[in-house]
Amino acid sequence: MTAITTAGTPGVNRFTRSQLLRTARLFATDPDLEREVDLDATERSWHRLDATDHLEIWLIRWPVGSSTGWHDHLQSEGAFLTVKGDLAEQSWSGNAAHDRYLWEGEGRSFGPHHIHNVTNLGDRPALSVHVYSPALRGMTRYALLDTTLRQTSVEKAGEQW
Q1: CB 120 within 8 A of CB 67
Q2: Which of 76, 83, 92, 114 has its CA 20 to 30 A from that of 70?
Q3: What is the annotated signal peptide range for this record (predicted)?
């Protein structure tokens, strides 16, 4: 994979969104993937599969009904792929939420500052692979109050997860 330099951001190497999604697909084919997370966990759990300054890859296990809450990934672009189960993504643009469903084997990519909430709405636990470039430095958390999304906090990588 070839990293590209983002125009206007000297020294920042990023992978294209299609490269991020292809990387998620590649990691999703690992037959031993499920061994990396606790399949009996009652809360959402995650395991970092690999990381450099320019690329970070996570495996997330989703019990039925679990959710991320509204958040973005600061400056990182990303992609995720549903390996097992079914996930729903609500993304925020303008002044409204937009729904998308990612069935087993489906994925999507997104740009920096993409605000979304991902939930397992299925009837069984789900598993997904998430890829970010550059590596995550943190996440902004949001709350939906009435019909307005408001920033509530910023989590720094390594401090809260």
Answers
A1: yes
A2: 83
A3: none
Give domain status of residue 23, yes or no.
yes
Chain segment 105-145, per-residue pLDDT in tens = 999 999 999 999 999 999 999 999 999 999 999 999 999 99
The answer to the question of residue 20 being in a domain is yes
CATH code, domain carrying 151: 2.60.120.10
Q: Which domain holds residue 38?
A: 12-156
Nearest 10 degrees: CA dihedral of 110, 59, 124, 141? -50
Could you tell me the pTM of the whole model? 0.88
* Overall number of domains in the chain: 1
Task: Tell whether the model's pLDDT for residue 65 goes beyond 50.
Answer: yes
Binding residues are: 71, 73, 116
The residue assigned the tokens 């084919």 is 29
